[in-house]
Amino acid sequence: MSTLNQALLKDSSFWEGKGALLPKYDREKLPVTAICFSMGRMGFGHFADIMQDLLECGAASGVIAGVETFSRAYYDSLKASDMLVTQIIYGNKKGEATPKIQGAITRALFLEETTESEDWQELLSYARDERVQFATINAPEIVYGMTYSGGDFATPTAPKVIADMENGTYTSDPGKWARFLLERYNAGLKFAVVSCTNFSRNGFFTGAVLRTMARAWEEKGYAPKGFLAYLSDPSQVGFPNTMIDRIAVSPDDVVRARMAEMDLESSVVVTEENRYWAIEDVFPGGRPAFDRAKGVFMCPNFADVKKYEDMKLRVLNMSHTTFASLGVLLGNRGAYGIYKCMQDKTLVDIITKIMDIVRGVIERPAAIDPADFIADTFDRLNNPNIPDDPMRIALNASTKITPRLMETYWEARERGVCPCKLSVILKPVAGFLRYCAGVDDAGVEYKLEDDPIRDTLVACGEAAKSGVKAEEAFRPLLSNASVFGRDLYTEPEVLSELCRLTDAMFAGPGAVRAAIDA
Fold first, then answer.
1. What gap in Å lies between CA 316 and CA 325, rounded to an integer?
2. pTM for the complete prediction?
3. Alpha-helical runs (H) found in 384-486
4. Can you point out the beta strands (E) in 250-326?
5. What whole-number distance in Å separates Cα of residue 486 and Cα of residue 218?
C-alpha cells in the first residue's frame, strides 16, 4: 500500500476517484500558531479537524505543532507520514463514509524528561514566538496527576507530578506544560491553555494544576518570582472552560479493509459527522475565529459553557454510561456494542425516560435546543458504522455516576418530581454496582476497566457475589459522596430503592434483564 505523506498528498492522480477530502491550504508554508499537547484521536479528530476547516475558509492564519509524551512508536509513525492522518467520517447510513486527510498538524515533537533534545528546543522556541496564541491539552484526566475540588490550586497525587514539584523537573505531563509556560513567561508573552479533556470545569482544573506547579517551583527557586502571578492573571494567561463533543474511536477490520481499498497506509482516526465545541472566550494572546467552524460556540463565561456541558453530560454521556453498565451486563461488549445497545428496546426506553427528566432540569444553551440535541443523540448512538465499545465508557466509571445520572436525580427531586418517576435513573446506577462483579447476566466474566477506586469496586463486587446484600456489600461506595453526589445512608429512600434494584440484579442468570424489564 502507498504510505501517506506530503509527496503522496501532492500526487493528484493517486486521489482520483477516491472521494477523499484533501487539505485546501499550503500546510508547508504556514507558521505554527497553536500547540496540541497529547495529539491522539481527539487531537486529530476534533481540534485539528476544526482548525483545518478554519484554514480552508481563511479564518485561521497558521497550523499546529503536536506534542507526544507517551509513545515513541506513535510519534515515529506520524513523522513517517509527515504528520498527515486519515480521518474516516461515518454518516448514519450503513457504509456511508467520507475519507478526509488531516493536515493541520504539521510538526510532531516528542518530549523526553530533559529539555536538551531538538524537539524540546523547538517547543521552547514556540513559547517565545508571539504568533503562537494558545495550546490545547487532549490528555485523559488521569494524566493531570492531581485532584481538584475548587479554588486556585489542586492537590497533587501522582508520584511523577509530586517529584517534579519537589525537584523542578519535567517528567510528568503537567511538568512539561509548566515548563512551556515558564518559557512563555520569561518571554513576556500572553497565552491561553485550552483543556479539551472531557470533564466538568476543565479550565478551572487546568489552571489550578499549573498554578500548583508554579507555586512549588517558585518556593523552591526553580522559577522566578512572578511566575505564579502570571498564571493567576487572566489578562496574561487564559484557562478557558470547554465542552468538547465528538465520538472518535480506533479503526477496526472494516476500516482497515476500506484503507486497503484506497491503497493507503497511515494512522487512522474514526469519527462521526457531528462535532461540538463550546469554549469560554478567554484568549489573551488572540485566537482564530473559532465560531466560523461548524458546531463551535464561543461563550462569554463558564455559566454559558456549563449549559452546553450539562446538556451533553446528561443526554449523550448519560446514554453512554447507561450502556456501559446495563449494556455491558447484557453482553454488548466489543466493537459496535453501542449500536447493539440501541437495538434493545428496553435500554432505549430507559434513556428516553431519563432524557425526558433531563429536559425539565437543565437550562437551555444559547445555540442548541435540548430537544434537537436529544433527537441528534439518538441518531448518533444508532450509527451502525461506528465500532464503539461500551467498555470504553466504563473506564473511570465511578467518576461518571454523579455528573451523568445522580445530579439529574437530585435536581429533579428538588423540583418536586415524584420518586416513582425518578426510579428509572437508578436502574443504570444499580447496573454500575452490578458491573463491579465482573460477570455478566449470562455468567460470562470480564475485566473491570481502570478506575481511581478500582480496588474498592472489585472488593464490593466480590462481597455481593458471595451473597452479602447490596446495602452492606457496597457500603464503601454507597457512603461515598464523590461517587453519588451524597452519602446515600443519609438518603434512606434512595438507598432502599437502589439496593432493591441491585439485589434483584444479583439474583442469578437473567436477573439483570428481569430487573430492567420490570
1. 15
2. 0.92
3. 390-394, 401, 407-414, 419-435, 454-465, 470-473, 475-478, 481-484
4. 264-265, 268-272, 276-280, 296-299
5. 38
- Please state, in angstroms and rounded to a whole number, the distance separating the CA atoms of residues 371 and 394: 26
Q: In the block, which residue shows the cell 505564579?
A: 228
Report the distance separating Cα 199 and Cα 197, nearest Å.
6
Nearest to 401 by CA among 428, 363, 377, 436: 428
Measure Cα distances from 195 to 62, 239, 280, 407 in Å: 20, 8, 11, 23
For 139-192, what is each residue's pLDDT tens digit? 988 899 999 989 999 999 999 999 999 999 999 999 999 999 999 999 999 999
- 306-357: per-residue pLDDT in tens? 999 999 999 999 999 999 999 999 999 999 999 999 999 999 999 999 999 9
Residue by residue, DSSP assigns 126-165 as: HHT-TT--EEEE---GGGG-EE--SSS--EE-SHHHHHHH
46 near 275, Cβ under 8 Å? yes
- Count of other CB atoms within 10 angstroms of residue 499: 21
Evaluate whether 335 touches 252 at the Cβ level (below 8 Å): yes
In this structure, what C-alpha cell is assigned to residue 61? 492564519
Burial code of 395-427, b = ≥16 C-beta within 10 A, e = fewer? Answer: ebbbbbbbbbbbbbbbbbbeeebeeeebbbbbb
Distance CA 55, CA 57 (A): 6
- Distance of CA 473 to CAs 97, 216, 400, 469, Å? 47, 41, 21, 6
> d(Cα 71, Cα 73) in Å, to the nearest integer?
5
